[in-house]
Design brief:
Length: 177
């Protein structure tokens, strides 16, 4: 079976090329909104219903997502429906964001902390991470009490774990090896 990322790649690239000539942030918002609706179980049933035509599926989807009347947006969704790829929208949106971040010289970073962080703490961590990765970071902070203490940072496919839980797991692995 073909990987979802392989299916989504040409659509993400096409959306990115169109968005570069118009509005990257608007396309990013649309894709996020569309992917949230496409992830809904009822929508998954609707899309897979063989009794509905592509036009009916597109009409319901555009009404639910309040898709703008812009031809490019409607054409993009129409292509997804016609090719049976509407449910790939979450992966398309993810890949689009990667392309957008690369184009803008930014990256997404998730900071998981055992405790809520003040804005000053977030800015300190952001500054250190931007130095380390050499790019501007879009930071999201999450509280994860299971970390016990410290933080665990994810930037792209890299994970920096300086949490107490991570250190305990490393010690356990060293002792049992």
């Amino acid at each position: 079976m073909v990987e979802l990322s392989t299916i989504a790649r040409p659509y993400a690239e096409a959306a990115f090329e169109v968005a570069k000539t118009s509005n990257l942030n608007q396309w990013s918002d649309w894709l996020e909104s569309w992917s949230a609706v496409a992830s809904n179980d009822d929508i998954k049933l609707l899309v897979s219903n063989p009794k509905l035509t592509d036009e009916q599926v597109l009409k319901v989807f555009t009404e639910l997502t309040k898709t703008p009347a812009e031809a490019q947006a409607t054409n993009f969704l129409s292509a997804l429906v016609e090719n049976g790829r509407l449910l790939a929208l979450p992966e398309i949106a993810r890949q689009f964001e990667e392309l957008k971040n690369s184009h803008e010289g930014t990256a997404d970073a998730v900071i998981a902390s055992a405790f809520p962080m003040s804005e000053a703490e977030v800015q300190n961590v952001r500054g250190a991470l931007e130095k380390k990765f050499g790019s501007k970071l879009n930071v999201t902070v999450q509280v994860d009490e299971s970390l016990i203490g410290g933080v665990c940072v994810t930037v792209g496919d890299q994970i920096l774990d300086s949490s107490v839980r991570g250190k305990l797991n490393a010690m356990k692995a060293a002792l049992t090896a």
